[in-house]
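Re: the 78-residue chain
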Amino acid sequence: MLRLRGANGDHTQFAVDAMLGAIGLGVLRRLNEPAITAKELAEELTTFAWGALAATAAAGGLTLDPDAPLLPLPQLSE
């Protein structure tokens, strides 16, 4: 996605792996200690994931807009 938008996408797999690991641990904690609802967990983790993705994109030279599509639909099929 970063490369398609003209940004540097090198080595982003490490940030993505870290984000997925953190989300997995958040889900595991919720399963072991259900102190919040599933909806609250989803909201918290969505905010976290967006922050991680936006920061990774910014480090690669791309500013993401949460209200804009990442790519036009025809470009996604390429």
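DSSP finds three helices and no strands in the chain.
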